[in-house]
Design brief:
alpha/beta; binds adenosine-5'-triphosphate; binds magnesium ion
């Protein structure tokens, strides 16, 4: 569902303003530090209730102010829907259609957004946690209760880990109970992740082919964190029993979905270790595209794509093919660039041009 308008108040360096967005492509052009990433971040916050930057939420409040607010509207002419989030000293408050939101999961599935920023190279190069989070977010956009599933698992894992660390008197009995609970919660979580990766893999392969313009194959596989030593598959309960003494010594749970990962290869080579920067970026973009197509196929939903500075590091061929694919997919796109030349293809296809200068956004057409 496209975002029709964005209103910001006291949000980073952005002036308090309201802008209208095109349902197709929108190109934000401006110098370094003008407020382009902040604009995408405002939309991401209003749709997802969090930032895509690795920051505390209160960092978005304009320096010298006590609160910040972002509001978007989506929906059609007859049923416009407002979503508003206010960041203040006490945290975050959100409203959907004017009603105070109590459950995050009911809010975040209303208008889906997916962001891609230069930091997203860490999808390939970074820690497994980064890839798990990506996968969990994709699953959450598909099924709102996935978030609760992950949280419930993490709660029990934390309790089990503190038990293993502190070894309070009589902890072994409690450990048994936590182990059972953990395994019960781990099973559907791993299953959902595994199935999603199996479905995403062929989509990512095709997306990579179309962006790279080569026949090099990108493969994505799910690597279970619940394996026995030596990589054998096994029931998590049995695995945890087998490593129990070791875990008691380590003071944490050393097997389980908290160690799940994705393995990505290009032409049989490990993308994390061997791919070039541009190839890694293409690989991360291919995964993003795969999720977009997956959501469309599964649920008929088209998330808003917030693409921050994607053009740098992609050669002109890859950039051109990426933009063609974006236009074909039909999602609403918000793309930032310091140089409109990088987005000439989108602009030629009637994208809305928004100029950003010192926090002021002005529609040029
Ligand atoms: N809480 C805040 N209050 C006021 N200004 C802020 C706040 N947070 C960030 N800024 C400033 O906002 C400006 C815009 O940042 P932003 O990241 O949006 O720029 P950008 O247009 O994406 O630049 P670049 O092309 O370099 O990526 C920066 O100068 C930054 O220092
Ligand atoms: Mg930026």
């Amino acid at each position: 569902m496209p975002v029709k308008s964005l209103k910001t108040e006291n949000f980073r360096n952005l002036a308090n303003q309201e802008i209208q967005l095109a349902p197709t492509a929108n190109v934000l052009v401006g110098r370094n530090g003008s407020g382009k990433t902040s604009t995408l971040e405002a939309i991401y916050l209003a749709t997802s209730l969090r930032s895509f930057r690795q920051v505390r939420l209160r960092d978005v409040i304009r320096q010298g102010c006590d609160w910040s607010q972002v509001e978007i509207t989506s929906g059609d002419v007859n049923t416009p829907l407002g979503q508003r989030v206010k960041i203040h000293g006490g945290g975050r408050t959100a409203w959907l259609g004017g009603r105070l939101v109590k459950k995050v999961s009911s809010y975040v599935v209303n208008c889906l957004s997916m962001a891609f920023t230069p930091d997203d190279l860490s999808m390939i190069k970074g820690s497994p946690e980064r890839r798990r989070n990506f996968l969990d977010r994709a699953l959450m956009l598909h099924r709102a209760d996935h978030l609760e599933r992950v949280r419930a698992f993490q709660r029990v894992l934390r309790s089990r880990n503190s038990l293993l660390k502190e070894k309070r008197p009589g902890y072994r009995e409690m450990l048994d109970s936590y182990t059972e609970q953990l395994c019960r919660l781990a099973e559907p979580l791993s299953q959902a992740r595994r199935q999603a990766v199996e479905q995403l893999a062929p989509l990512a392969r095709r997306a990579y082919e179309s962006i790279s313009g080569t026949s090099e194959e990108m493969t994505v596989t799910y690597v279970s964190g619940s394996r026995r030593q030596g990589g054998e598959k096994g029931d998590l309960y049995q695995v945890l029993q087998a490593v129990r003494t070791r875990d008691e010594r380590l003071g944490y749970t050393s097997r389980g979905p908290q160690f799940d990962d994705l393995q990505m290869d290009i032409a049989g080579r490990d993308a994390r270790k061997l791919a070039s920067q541009g190839e890694q970026r293409s690989c991360a973009l291919a995964l993003l595209m795969a999720v977009v197509e997956w959501l469309r196929d599964m649920d008929g939903r088209l998330p808003v794509l917030l693409l921050d500075d994607v053009s740098s590091e992609l050669d002109s061929g890859r950039r051109g093919r990426l933009f063609s694919r974006l236009l074909e997919m039909g999602n609403q796109v918000m793309l930032t660039t310091t140089d409109p030349q990088y987005a000439s293809q989108l602009l030629a296809a009637e994208a809305r041009l928004l100029e950003v200068d010192q926090g002021v956004i002005e529609a040029k057409r």
